[in-house]
Hints:
two-stranded antiparallel ribbon
Amino acid sequence: MSTEKLPGGEYQGMSTDNSSNTSLFFKIAKDQLFERDFDLDHLIGFGTYVRMNHGQLVSKVLQRVPKEQDYTNGRTLVRAVGGAFLPRIIWPGKPNFGGEENMRVFLGHKGKLMLSENIGPYGEGYGNFGKVGGIIYSFVFGIFLSFLLHKILVICRKKPTLLLFLPFIFLKALSVETDLLTTLGSLWTAIIFVWFLYWFSDKVLGVSL
Length: 209
C-alpha cells in the first residue's frame, strides 16, 4: 500500500488492514516530527513552560513576601494540618487541596484556580518563617518523611508485601509542586486505604497478605 500526503496535510491510502494502518500511522508521525514547519505555537509553548516551571512560582513568593505580604508564622501550616485530618463535614471551611490557599495568601490570587498550582514546601516554608526559618522547616519536613518511611519499613519485616505499596503511599510526598496539606492528606488517605485492604483481606477473605 502506498501512502501519499495530500494538500492540507491529509493522507490517502487508508486501508482496513491493521498492518497497513499501523505503517500509515508511523509515516504520519515521522512526517510531523521531522517536517521543518512542525513547531508548537509560541504562545502555547510559552504557557506550557511557565506552567511547568515550578521555580517561577517560588521566586514570586520570594519577591512578594514580606514586601506585600507578611510572614504568616505558621498560620497556614496549622490550617493545613487540620485540613488534612478533619473531614469537611466537621470543618466546612477547611482549605482546599491543590494549592488554592497558598496561591491566595502568598501570591494574592483571587477566586478558584483554573489549574492546580502550588508554591511547594520551599515557598511554603519561606512564606511562613522567612529564609532561616524556611530552611529549618524544610529540614523538619524531611525528617518527618524519613521517620514515617522508617516506621513503614519496620512493619515490612512482618508484612513484606507492604513494600509494593510504598510508591502509592508516598506518591504526593515525592511531587515537587505540593504542600503540607496535600502531602499529609495524601499520606493519611493512602495509609488508611492500605490498612483497610490488609484488614479486609485478613478478616473477611481469610487471605494473609
